[in-house]
Amino acid sequence: MDSPEFLSTSLHTMTCLEVPVHLFGAYCILFKTPISMKSVKFSMLNLHFWSVFLDLAISLLTSPYVFFPALVGKSLGLLEYFNVSIPIQLYLIVTLFPTVGVSITAILENRFYLLFARDTFWKYLRIPFLGFLYLASWCCFIPSLLNIPDQKEALEEILEKMPIILKYANVTEIFVLSTDYREFFFTLIIMIALVTVTSVTFAFLLHWNMKKRSKLVNVSIHTLHLQKIFFTAIFIQTSMPILILIFPLNYLAFSMFTEYFNQAINNICFIITAFHGLLSTIIMIIVHKPYREVFYIVFCEKVLRILKLKEGSVTYSMSSLSRPT
To answer: What is the pTM of this model?
Structure first.
């Protein structure tokens, strides 16, 4: 489990599973979103796009083989075969994580704005606010990438502390992002905190305003019930994949602060992270009734129909055999 072959095989196998599921999810959003969900269609498509992009970036494009706690590793993915530089591959990976988080904030903000803030000052601030979050996601790691050390000196320093790395890769294959993890790690913590706080804030505002609205006499009970169902579905869709990422992030923090090295767990962390988008798409299809019905019609009904036809043909064959000649 600590070998590069195990990691690449696992990630590329996941790609084969992810692509058809993601395509079906995109089909549902684009063509099967009902009029009642039209207002959130773009936000859902935006979240789906970035989640899929993160999935494929890890499992197919880069397949990072990283030796945490050192910020050292190599690429096993498709971009390596096209000679794309390691810093560009790094930039792609590290920016997609916070971008997915901002997309989750955007979908919650969209619901809050449409339901409760259309006639408030927030309508003037929402676009600059979301623009700032996306810009921060795309720019926050640029200082780390601009300060990439001299590879020869950095490798000597890293190998003095962790000579075990040579067991897993040749010196000519590995790339050192930094000899000091603190700048990179604290930038990651700041972005995670920013995205988490904003997402939780909008989730709280939605819940609080719905609770407040439920006490009003002139509000339709049916409309309020539908809004609560949709909010619950959105909450499940956005929170469950985040829970998947808790283990990799906690292990990353533990590994860096204790200098604990275990390449098998490093590999598993990236496999779990790559599973994030697949889980997000599956949950989206399950929790939203229109998409769930499309899945049932496209797959379940056809399977049942085929089984019935086979059962009918078997029955007919048995009856024909039992007839006297």
So the answer is: 0.84
Any domain includes 312: no
Question: Could you read off the pLDDT of 33-45 as tens digits, one per residue?
Answer: 888 788 888 988 9
Domains held by the chain: number: 1
- 293 is a domain residue: no
- Residue at 309 is within a domain: no
Express each pLDDT in 43-86 by its tens digit.
Answer: 889 999 998 998 899 988 988 898 888 888 888 888 888 888 88
Residue 322 lies in a domain: no
d(C-alpha 36, C-alpha 232), whole Å: 16
Residues of the domain holding 234: 4-287
